[in-house]
Design goal:
The structure is a single chain. The protein is of the alpha/beta class and 158 residues long. It contains four helices and five strands; from the N terminus they run βαβαββαβα. Strand 1, helix 1 and strand 2 form a beta-alpha-beta unit. Helix 2 runs parallel beside helix 3.
């Protein structure tokens, strides 16, 4: 099973990039259904990432980043490098997808994906807005194309 999860906030300009790509991938898979591939828009709900990833062999997460790098830069990172156990808190908004990776592995053990890849696209604008900036839109198109190629490749595998 391949699970793809897009994260972000649709009301914060470039922060929406993961959600927008996930929605495009859902449309792509609606036209080419495959029983062993799932795409979720998890918005900003880190806990949802943990539960949706359970039972998958491979997991891809897509999100915006804000590291001070060149806007539109795409980082493809192994999930193990980004796993972080959450600080004690009673606020679920503090539980992000990087926490979900660490917690999911700890809770679900072998029922959690071993192979995790995270695509981070550097944001240009994180202010309120409903549009991606042009440079981030271009990067979103590139990531979409790369992930659809992965989907086609995995169709044979699953």
């Amino acid at each position: 099973m391949l699970t793809i999860i897009g994260c972000g906030n649709l009301n914060r300009s470039d922060d929406a990039v993961g959600v927008i790509i996930a929605q495009r991938l859902q449309q792509y898979l609606a036209q080419r259904p495959h029983p062993h591939m799932r795409v979720y828009d998890c918005g900003t709900a880190g806990m949802e990432v943990m539960f949706q990833a359970r039972g998958s062999k491979k997991l891809i997460i897509i999100d915006a980043s804000s590291t001070g790098s060149e806007p539109g830069a795409v980082f493809k990172v192994p999930g193990k490098e980004l796993e972080a156990l959450p600080e004690p808190s009673y606020n679920l908004h503090d539980f992000r997808w990087d926490h979900a990776l660490a917690a999911g592995r700890k809770i679900f053990k072998e029922d959690f994906p071993e192979e995790v890849t995270v695509y981070l696209i550097e944001a240009e604008n994180l202010g309120f807005g409903l549009e991606l900036s042009p440079v981030v839109q271009h990067s979103a198109d590139l990531v979409f194309e790369e992930i659809t190629a992965i989907i086609r490749q995995n169709e044979k595998e699953f």
